[in-house]
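User: For a reading group we're discussing how well predicted structures match intuition. Take Protein kinase domain-containing protein. Before you show the prediction, I'll give you the sequence so everyone sees exactly what went in.
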Amino acid sequence: MLFSIPQTCNNSTHIQTSNSQKIEINSDGLNSNHQKPRSEKQISHMGITHFLVSLLLLLLAFSPPLPIVSGNTEMRALLELKASLDPENRLLKSWTNNGDPCSGSFEGVACNEHRKVANISLQGKGLTGTLSPALAGLKCLSGLYLHYNNLSGQIPQEIGSLAELSDLYLNVNNLSGNIPPHIGDMANLQVLELCCNQLTGDIPTHIGSLKSLTVLTLEHNRLTGEIPASLGNLGMLRRLYLGYNRFNGTIPDSLAKNQQLQVLDVRNNTLSGAAPSGLKRLNEGFQGDNNPGLCGVEFAALRACTAYDTVNINTVEPFGSHSSNSPPIEISESPNYRANCNQTRCSNSSKFPQVAIVVGVVTVSVILIGAGFLTLLHCRRKKQKIMSTSEFSDEQLNSDLAKEFNRNGASPLVCLEYSHGWDPLGDGLNGSGFSQLEHLNSFRFNLEEIESATQCFSEVNLLGKSSFSSVYKGILRDGSLVAIRSINVTSCKSEEAEFVNGLNLLTSIRHENLVRLRGFCCSRGRGECFLVYDFAPKGKLSEYLDVEDGTTYILDWSTRISIIEGIAKGIGYIHSSEANKPAIVHRNISVEKVLLDQQFKPLIADCGLQKLLADDMVFSALKTSAAMGYLAPEYVTTGRFTEKSDVFAFGVIILQVLSGKLMLSNSMRLAVESSKFEDFIDSNLKEKFSESEAAKLGKISLLCTHEDPENRPTIGAVIEELTFAAPVMATFLFS
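Assistant: Thanks. Here is the predicted 3D structure of Protein kinase domain-containing protein, as structure tokens, for the group to look at:
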């Protein structure tokens, strides 16, 4: 009797016998299934089976320890995959034969709780190889992210055996050949991303078997043929992108009947006929322009249909060349014209000029349409020729795609999201949570747009790192500059409801002296949250301190006054309670958290960020504040932050801006008290400052940093004094 041990995605081991009897061995080595009493013959057979199983276990017990068979299979598959993806061994050096893929040492590889490879994330790594059929050995793979590389060759048909795969991202590569029909066997597939490659052939009808598919993107390839009606069977499909290919024929009515469909993009093809009226419900979600043969009623991007559109444009022949089996094309004109003509010639010779004109117009129209098709094909071949070259960098490719998408409207990638893993905005909320989600949806970005903006988190775009996050410079597809902060899920609030409340707060904060949050992205596949802020081109305020004359820009006196006033106004806003937001204590204000826009207007960063972060992350950030002198002394005894602790940090910033120094000293405070300007005013100003304003700001800084919080002014009182709007504070400050 022969035994085989198939690989599974859990911890139990199944032994399959040659007569298809399956025995499950649990952790005790016994059959875990409770069975009914058997006959003597069955007992005899079971006795033999148990004997063999016991013998097998005995042999295993006294044999030298061997790696798990499935582990060997996965290791072989990973090493073969490495050899194909990175043939020069430049980028995946961490994938070694003696390593452990589940230890975190294999770059981009993550395992499930059963120590099986579940996720491969190698997007934007500069891979230049091919896809190996060895992928089929990773039976538990649920996410494969290889987009934004320069992979070539064909998609192996063996990929269809990955029954657990839910996310397949192969977009923005240089893959060629046909789409394997075997992909239709991947029952769990939810996102299929193949756009921006060199794929040819038609769409396999078997794709219509992917009942779980929600997103299908095939745009910017060389695909041909008709759009298969089987795509209408994808009951979960929400977004379908087929633009910038060579599809012909009509749009299937079955697609229009799919009530889940939200986006259908068929731009820049050679489709013909009338667009199904059911697509009108998609509004702007339907994009069909640049299909000369496509028409429709009440579609803004399509021309109106005529009688000619009832004839398949691909079967139209030149006039006079119809075969005996083809009925002549009947030209619909006015009733008078039809009444005076028969099948051979016009009965009224006086109508001959009119017939000649009509025939001439139709002939010219056909010629123009044909010329349009030829021009379109020529442009497409030219574009594909540009896209097919392998002598380009990832940065060039991303830039070219961004330009292409900007020219032709919003990219379909903007509408995508990973479908596997962590999602704090899932369906777990109810009640009042729905209103929050509705508000937050208008701020949502997706991982594809974040990756495109940062060139897949290129080190070139890295602005800085902290204990819990990294910040990257990015360019959105509309051309605007942003700063994108990535935070790992392990650093975020563990309760999803708390996390959503924090996001809701951050999106409600709006003030001219706060860094504006453009939106956020919760990446399920990466397990990260991304916050997208407006980019501050002049950098951090700290960069303008401790400056040696001539090494960088020197802030003049009026700019320093404006910066101090702006910071105070920003703090005043977050301390105030309004209809759409509660009062907030920043907790971590410093010159590192003050950014400057193009006009040197101050923008306070990270307001409310602590509402997203786990407590230990918040506390770890305080170490830097304490070292730089921003931490109010009462925190040591109370362990609490109040508005007065923010005021303390603001007082420190005033003195830093006046002195141009990051590190302050007691002698500097004494100089402020005695108005010895030469000892606390930045020497780079060359004495170009107002002594009265310097004295007043110095006094405010001393009061704000008073050891007793009760003796510190409120930020509102400081603002009134700084703007010289009223002498309300004068008695309190200078008595």
